[in-house]
Amino acid sequence: MSATQQLDAISARIAALSGGSGSVSTLSTEARASTELLGALPPRYGEVLLNLLDRLESSALFSEESCSFSQKDLLDNLQVWADKARGQLVS
Question: Which of 12, 43, 47, 65 is the most exposed place for a label (fewest CB within 10 A)?
Fold first, then answer.
């Protein structure tokens, strides 16, 4: 799968979670396995993605009220990451 295809798949998972379907574990597993994508981006993109995924996984373990990470905010941040990553891929 190409870097662009992997990014498209991650974006689709983010959109699904934002819409109330999908699973955090599926998104996380797929994103972590996106070696073509991560290899095509500057190293800091991988660091940021892994940090966001770690926090998203943590937020999935708790109810929204008891977790210091807002799942909605993390998904928004992941979408920003995906948008910036797409910009990197096309430049």
Answer: 65
- Residue 59 neighbours by CB under 8 Å, 6+ apart: 24, 67, 69, 70, 71, 74
CA pair distance 68, 21, nearest whole angstrom: 22
CA triple 10-11-16, angle to 5 deg: 95
Question: CB of 91 within 8 A of CB of 83?
Answer: no
Q: How far apart are CA 90 and CA 85, in angstroms?
A: 9
Considering only residues 5 and 71, tell me which one the structure prediction assigns the higher pLDDT.
5
What are the pLDDT digits (tens) for 15-60?
999 999 989 999 999 999 999 999 999 999 999 999 999 999 988 7
Domain positions in the chain are 3-90
CA atoms within 13 A on the CB side of 74: 23
- Give the chain's length: 91
